[in-house]
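Q: 5-formyltetrahydrofolate cyclo-ligase, please. Structure only.
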Amino acid sequence: MENNKKELRLKYKTLRKQLSENDIEEMSLAIANQLLKLPVWEKNYFHVFLPIKEQQEIDTELILHLLSGKDKEILVSKSNFQTREMTHYLLTDNTKIKKNEYNIPEPVDGIEVPSKKIEVVFIPLLAFDKKGHRVGYGKGFYDKFLGECQAETIKIGLSFFEAEESIDDVHDGDIQLNYCVTPKTIYSF
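A: Structure for 5-formyltetrahydrofolate cyclo-ligase:
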């Protein structure tokens, strides 16, 4: 059986649909606890995705609590579906969050921060392999965004499921993860 991105997208969307709300809560908590073991906490600017509930994504609220408890600068994005670009805004107590047409919660406006300043990015994904390649939804937003970050930006994938052996159709433009964290494992690439 081929392990291409299309197949993997299908497989993991199906696996995700089988998770209960309780599963998601428990696994998200386990992931947040794993993150505490990573050597990233001296950094300041952290980019976090806000989960698409309808896609059974990891609940990042616990990660937001960790970051605000450590007084970090938290960035959330707004996606432009015409240009496939993301604009990053500081998350503050006054940030208004609103769902866009794809059910992605986004900041309405705020203080913009360039990609170059971001030191750690938590990345949503559907699947990943043991070399640190990831499969997202295929829209290319994160590839573009990660390409704008500094080379030393730490890229951390978050996944409910363990790594695949490999992904067949990886290409040069794909940016590798530094870590991927699951409820049970920290993968370091």
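A: Brief note, in case it's useful. The mean pLDDT is 95.
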